[in-house]
Amino acid sequence: MCNKYNGHANYETWLAALWIDNDEGLSSMVDDLVIEMSKKGEKSYKIGKEIESLVSEAYDKDSFETGLLSDLLSGAWSSIDWTEIAESKMDDTKDEWNSEEDEEGDNDDN
Q1: What residue ranges in the chain does DSSP mark as E strands?
Q2: pLDDT(27) > 70
Q3: Cα(98)–Cα(68) distance, rounded to whole angstroms?
């Protein structure tokens, strides 16, 4: 059975990506993180873990008391494919971090 949802690994991944993209401040922070880590040659898995941490902090994920809502949130959260989100963001920002690398290389020639 295929659990793909709107081109994403699953509903939870689609929803997380949607919220990240629709929150201008969070989207900007994630893009900056992706650009910085991509310029350092970091791989999508590590970038995904950092995105997860950033989003967790932004939404104060751990503020729920123990109970049904906490368990449901943890279950949904663990289903998010953060690597897929990182790969998508890396693709979206590729021109930015590639052009910055090119500019730095041009400056080294001087």
Answers
A1: none
A2: yes
A3: 45
Q: 89 in helix, strand or coil?
A: helix
Cα distance between residue 46 and residue 100, in whole Å: 21
Model confidence at 110: pLDDT above 60: no
Angle between the N-to-C axes of helices 68-79 and 11-22, in degrees from 0 to 180, rounded to the nearest 10: 90
d(C-alpha 40, C-alpha 7), whole Å? 28
Contact assessment for residue 38 and residue 47, using Cβ atoms and an 8 Å cutoff = yes
Kindly calculate the radius of gyration of the chain based on its CA atoms and give it in whole angstroms: 16
Place of tokens 């494919």: 81
**What sign does the dihedral 34-52-81-49 (CA atoms) show?**
positive
CA–CA dist 83, 104 (Å, integer)? 28
Q: Report if pTM > 0.90.
A: no
How many residues appear in the chain? 110
- pLDDT tens-place string over residues 14-26: 999 999 999 999 9
